[in-house]
Amino acid sequence: xxxxxxxxxxxxxxxxxxxxxxxxxxxxxxxxxxxxxxxxxxxxxxxxxxxxxxxxxxxxxxxxxxxxxxxxxxxxxxxxxxxxxxxxxxxxxxxxxxxxxxxxxxxxxxxxxxxxxxxxxxxxxxxxxxxxxxxxxxxxxxxxxxxxxxxxxxxxxx
Length: 158
Prior knowledge:
Layout: H1 3-24, H2 28-44, H3 55-76, H4 91-111, H5 114-125, H6 130-137, H7 141-157
Helix pairs in contact: 1-2, 2-3, 5-7, 6-7
């Protein structure tokens, strides 16, 4: 594909790509950044396009891959700004409270049945997805969601 045809196709698809990015990002600025990343990668990798008729399939698969990379990068950089007027908690008091909460949580977890406890630990402590938990427990994903729902309910009841 020559450069002129490539630029024409990219110009035609840019609004659609921007809409794609707007639907997947929380604000306009991040959508613009993501769209620019996708367009930049599209221009860089256009030499790998073997068939001109497959341009749109190539573009959407590339857009999906760039979006996945963007999500991974964003997940690793999550921060939560603290307001300036946060009252300082004495370290000893905070440790005592957290120790008590941990003790209560461990006690309640120990009272859960094996399947409920394993599903809860895998999901909340080991950050496994429902699909991964389903594979390791040998149950369906909907069963994992049910186990998590019931264990949350039991933990709240105390």
